[in-house]
Amino acid sequence: DIQMTQSPSTLAASVGDRVTITCRASQDIRGWLAWHQQKPGKAPTLLIYEASTLQSGVPSRFSGSGSGTEFTLTISSLQPDDSATYYCQQYDRYPPTFGGGTKVQIK
Amino acid sequence: EGQLVESGGGLVQPGGSLRLSCAASRFTFSTYPMHWVRQSPGKGLEWVSGIGASDGATHYADSVKARFTVSRDNSKNTLYLQINSLRDDDTAVYYCAKEEYGSGNCGTFGVWGQGTVVTVSS
Lengths: 107, 122
Hints:
The structure holds 2 protein chains of 2 kinds. In chain A, strand 5 (45-49) and strand 6 (53-54) form a beta hairpin. Chain A is globular. Chain A contains no helices and 11 strands. In chain A, 0% of the residues lie in helices and 50% in strands. Chain A is mainly β. By secondary structure, chain B is mainly β. Helix content of chain B is 0%, strand content 54%. Chain B has no helices and 11 strands. Chain B has strands spanning 3-7, 10-12, 18-25, 34-39, 45-51, 58-60, 68-73, 78-83, 92-102, 107-112, 116-120. In chain B, strands 2, 4, 5, 6, 9, 10 and 11 form a 7-stranded mixed beta sheet that branches. A 4-stranded antiparallel beta sheet of chain B has the order 1-3-8-7, with no helix packed on it. The relative contact order of chain B is 0.31. Chain A binds chain B through residues 30, 32, 34, 36, 38, 42-46, 49-50, 55-56, 87, 89, 91-101, and chain B through 1, 35, 44-47, 50, 59, 61-62, 95, 100-103, 105-115.
């Protein structure tokens, strides 16, 4: 199975800060990477697919980049509503696998 | 986009069984692959099983193979997960999810249900 490793596992930043989360795959997954956001007690929601394509309705302050084995999720200007856990997920091949998550807290 | 509503969770003893259901609406259910993803208390997300749209091909995580069975009834717009021989580590919130974007091999999840809780305990 392809292992997905996220860093950091937690981060705290101030409103307006630029935030970057990294996701590394144990094998080449080309561009088949998604990012999901999960708020406490809620189901996840899809933010980005194919490494950099924003899902409909997702604010433009979110962006994704990368290919192969290294990917990043960037929030250009952190907002209070962005407090959540973020998961990367590869879908290059079965089984689809998730990173361990990055919890983003607002200072 | 669509809506998914899970049901069927509950408290069950180790070794017991449950059937989870996921009712789909507001999209053409029969044309999308569907999946189950679970989340143990305080933990991350774990993909459990998936089923193809037209061919009904099924896939399972190694941790549930031979114990879980995924199926779908396209006439009822419903996805199912039969879970047998339940173990303590099957305790989790079980989400159904609609596959919206694929690589040709696998996909990611554009719509998620609200989840149903399965608790395995004696």
